[in-house]
Amino acid sequence: MSDSSQRYKQQISRATPGCILFLVDQSNSMIDGIAGSSRPKAESLATAINRFIRDLTTECLKGDAKPWHYFDVSVLGYHTDDEGRALVGPAFQGRLAGRDLVSVVDLFDYPLREVIKEVDDGDGGLVRKRSYVWYDAVTRGGTPMTRALQHAHRVVAEWIGRHPGSFPPVLIHFTDGEPTDGDPEPAAEALRHLATDDGNVLLFNCHLSDRDVPGVLFPSSADELPDEYSQMLFRMSSLLPEQCLALARAKGFAVKPGARGMVLNADATALIQLIHIGTTIKKALR
Amino acid sequence: MQPNPPAPARGCVVFLVNTAASMAGSHAAAGGGSRLEAARRLIEGVLADLAALAARGALDPAELDIAVVGHGGGDSPLRSLLAGSDEAPFVALRDLPAALRLTGASPGGAAREGLADAVLLLQGWLLGQDHPVRPLLVHCTDEDGLAPGRSMAARLLRHHCVPGGAAMLATCGFSNACPVRVTLPCPAAAVPPAWREAWLSSSRGRTAGGEETHALAINDPSPAPLVRLVRLLARQAEAPPLPWYLSTADPVPCEVRVLWAPREGNSDDEYEDARAVDADAGCAVIADGASQGIFSRRWAQLLTGRFLAESPNLTDSAAVEAWIAAARRQWRQEIRYADLHGLQQNKVDEVGSAATLLGLALHRAAGRLRWRAVALGDSCLFHIRRGQMLTSFPLCRPSDFGVTPDLIPTLRRFCPKVRFVTAEGLGKMEDLYGLATDAVAHYLLKSHAEGHPPDWERLWGMDAARWRDELRRLRQRGEVVNDDATLVLLRVRGPGEGSGGVPRTSDCRHDPHET
Question: Which chain B residue's Cα is nearest to A12?
Fold first, then answer.
């Protein structure tokens, strides 16, 4: 790796595609609401992920029959079965089931289902609008976080092997609880240690805590966080690169130098903003 | 198509005031007070006289927009000196208070070039008008405000044209170093050496006796000459607007070179710029399709091809609207909307596409070689003579390139009324013209501004492989933004053909005080 100012500069192209991974805690407690809301966390999260996939795929549509292969996307879920055994792996369903990583072309071709709504056309009439779902929420069992990070490590390492010149993968991890399979910090560190020629993997964490505590966005110190689990996730999170800091500031966040890619108790809007800050970095660089 | 009844002609006067620290210096010729106060009194006098004319019915105060903007004070951009108009610097004369006092004009900071910023301000105004009167820009400054780069901005300003003629630049100097009074219009003999460049940069005219004059005043407190100029411009606009087409009769055939490349890392089929060239008609049009859009390559191709073929009358807003509507219909047909995937249909409906447009046509009129240009957005025309950049249009500084250029969208709601800025100038046989999309245009202007101007003859002789090699190196060094790149070069065909009848300067104009 050359000096840090030269990192995180690679543009997305078909020769150097990007990679976005969602790591989703699917444990039973994800059925509760976020930040006092009655809507299950798991559902808000599924909506945010589907919206993100829609936007990303749409962005890659340039005017050919298919989107251009600018991104690979992964949704990895983790929970345990009734016997407490870790179930970690790809969370896409339907035609994409069982695949750790899929291209935007596959996402375009194989959504889980199409939803048709009639919406106001702004001119007194109705227009049929098609939307798509790729990921349905799942909630079950415990929180094998360490195993999940290790699985993500394998997926990311394999992708980097094929795309050494690309912007590094961005991994966004959503969880609401304490890990049930030991200390995840070494696995997170190993993941952050992976790098392309353009920089280290970016690991962002979103802690959806059960505790009634105020939200925290992009903290620069563990002292800003209320409990050991959120402090652990802080330590697991990447420092925001300069470009991310600039984007976060452009979106109105008062981020300080040393801020990390972490949020605590984000509502759905902040959730989506986290995803955007984690991913639009590449768009801004084009 | 029958032209629609024209919208009422609307004029504008922009006062650009140097508010740098040097303007705090005393101004002996105006009876004490600072140079800035003298400038302020002059502007307030002009506005009071215009208001009095309006009260007598000699001027329509609803159809004359006024902006008074300060430049100076370090790196700050232009700021409005009319109270309460920070967001919208243009205020109709009718809406100005009776006893106007300019605000916020306390001098401070180093002088900076402000004319190029004022040109951008004026372009924004022009893009809002259906039937603009020739705009007048009055630059009030001392010697320190005549910064390097002003001449280029002045030429750019004076090339802007509307149906009645070219935009005008008047310079009102405030100087202790030249304790003389010079009245506008000013003949060559009256110009102090320090103001020679400012004189040349200001709009040109001719006295009844044929003597060349320019719109320069020095230490003249009288508002009368400027008021006369505004009235003259307003009267010229009383005639219905003449049609303005990019291509006209008597075209001048050209030789053309086209250099292009997709963004590094992309293949040729991902290139979303477009160009259409008719060498025999001396005409070229380029467009930069928005990379965030869908079917942008096709939209850029359609716009360039149709503009070249149809050359709509740009002074008839209905004709422009019809031209764009037809292009939009063709685009929608060609993309086969009904057969698209739902995500594609959603993108067509919600984002669509958009593109810049830049056109150039060379023709001959009254024995002179002339060029015409039309622009929307940040693709740039360069006019080169003997390796020197005479003009760039519509932008003239590398800092003028923003992230959100004006664009022609496929979705009408994003820009219900598309308008263009237009320019005209005179050329010579040996001149070179370059049309470039933003990444190349930015690089060329940056090179020019940093004192190592591009080698245009080398570009003219460059083959495609060499161009792509150089571009790759420049992109790797970060000197050229990695974006689709297009450079179309034109030169009048016919080696050995003389330049008979073609004047020496490229920017001579029919100024109102010439007639």
Answer: B265
SS3 of residue A238 by DSSP: coil
For residues B515 and B512, give the distance between their C-alpha atoms in angstroms, rounded to a whole number: 6
Per the prediction, chain A carries an average pLDDT of 87
Prediction ipTM score = 0.83
* Distance of alpha carbon A22 from alpha carbon A40, whole angstroms: 18
Environment class of B258 (CB within 10 Å of its CB; exposed 0-12, middle 13-18, buried 19+) = middle
> H/E element holding B305?
helix B296-310
Assess contact for B138 and B12: CB atoms under 8 A. no
Cβ contact (<8 Å) for A61 and B272? Answer: no
pLDDT at B171 over 90: yes
Measured between alpha carbons, how far is A199 from B281 in angstroms, rounded to an integer? Answer: 52
Rounded Cα gap, residues B505 and B47, in angstroms: 34
Q: Does the pLDDT of residue B495 top 70, yes or no?
A: no
Q: Measured between CB atoms, which of B298, B347, B482 is closest to A61?
A: B347
Residue of B263, B341, B346 to mutate, interface with A, max A Cβ within 10 Å: B341
SS3 A131: strand
Taking the C-alpha atoms of residue A283 and residue A55, their distance in angstroms, rounded to an integer, is 12
Mean pLDDT value across residues A238-266: 84
Reading the block at residue A160, the tokens are 């980097």
Q: What is the distance between the alpha carbons of residues A163 and B477, in angstroms, rounded to a whole number?
A: 22
Give the mean model confidence (pLDDT) for residues A178-190: 94
- At B274-320, the pLDDT tens digits run 999 999 999 999 999 998 899 999 999 999 999 999 999 999 999 99
Number of helices (H) and strands (E), helices first, in chain B? Answer: 11, 24
Residue B478 to residue B467: CA distance in whole angstroms: 16
Test A58 with B343 for CB contact under 8 angstroms.
yes
Cβ–Cβ of B342/A14 closer than 8 Å?
A: no
Average pLDDT, chain B: 88
Q: What percent of chain B lies above the pLDDT cut of 70?
A: 90
Q: Which of residues 77-116 of A touch B (CB under 8 A)?
A: 108, 114
Among A50, A61, A280, most B C-beta atoms within 10 A, so best to mutate, is A61
Q: Which of A175-184, B99-108, B361-370 has the lowest mean pLDDT?
A: B99-108
A286 interfaces chain B, CB cutoff of 8 Å: yes
Q: How confident is the model at residue B503 (pLDDT cuts 50, 70, 90)?
A: very low
Give the separation between CA B481 and CA B469, rounded to whole angstroms: 15
Q: Which of B343, B345, B347 to mutate to test the interface with A (most CBs of A within 10 A)?
A: B343
